[in-house]
Here is the input.
Amino acid sequence: MKELVTKWNSISLVKRIIAGLIIGIILGMVVPQFSVIGLLGQLFVGALKAVAPILVFFLVSGALCQHKEGKKTNMKTVVVLYLLGTFLAGTVAVIASFLFPVELTLTAGVEDVSAPSGVGEVLKTLFMNIVSNPIDAIANANYIGILSWAVLLGIALRKAGDGTKKAITDISDAISQCVRWIISCAPFGVMGLVFTTISEQGIDALLSYGHLILVLVGSMLFVALVVNPLITYIGIRKNPYPLVFKCLKDSGITAFFTRSSAANIPVNMNLCKELGLDKDTYSVSIPLGATINMGGAAVTISILALAATHTLGISVDFPTAIILCVLSAVSACGASGVAGGSLLLVPLACSLFGISNDLAMQVVGVGFIVGVIQDSCETALNSSTDVLYTAVAELSGHRKAQKQK
Here is the structure.
């Protein structure tokens, strides 16, 4: 048995995940009534979501309390890249919507889902999350609140004794080990998640929305394979694709199946460590990216909002489209780190064109139908870009430092 486990672990995680994907598809089509298989996926995602908030809290506070005075980090550059990338993703989505206009067959439903009524409400929620009770923030996976309290605690502990600092570091290391154990079970979790999708949704349910899915996924692929490499090249001044593909493979694949940027934080932390990045930077930038680096969400918000205007025959001029790019970027930063979070911000974008909330919520209903693919691709883009931009910021800093010598 021990030899079997050793041989299993010797296979790369990506290959094991692909095997789980294939088995999940086959089981979902052959024995859809065996719903207990889907429990594996729920357990996997549940375990990651449970441990991620605690890990982030101790990683951030531990990194900051160990930070030495005068040591520079790349956080300013990372934040600029996050905001720029989200805005450019929204711009790509707007252009794609004009080139390939989508019309929807609006459906009833999702009346029980409440969406924010304006940018003011989104910002209010964002600020209230910052000052949320720290215990409540950890319990409810409020990563903005977790980050704010972890930063304050980490700064306050800089004058603590070495024993206290070491204890916090030891706790974060122990939690990180637990995360690695959970991630090693990813193939079984993916098998359960894919089984649930195929057995409950079926492939036929998605075919009727093929045009919309193609525009959504095509826009996200363009951002991942053209926009992000261009930004990376400007930063590092060499072939960007090895780094881009590394982030997509090691971060994007797991994020595609967990459909949660928050749940993928531990995976990204491990990838940053593998890339040899500065822990002082990535221990803060990765959790922050799961909250504000939402290029995929900006794509979803823009395309669904413009699909609503095309369906209703509303003319959209260029200045309004630019405003939508900004609005989708701001709204995306307020999207939650859970599956389907960006869809609830579609009515906010629709309000820019005078579309009623009732009609906008029907667009959200369509979003939930295509969410099996849309949300998976969105999360893969968001999460992999968190690592990519963190790496670009550091490598760009190294390049500039060498140039000045």
Q: What stands out?
A: The two ends are 56 Å apart (CA to CA). DSSP finds 18 helices and no strands in the chain. Confidence is low (pLDDT under 50) at residues 108-117. Residues 96 and 218 are 9 Å apart (CA to CA).
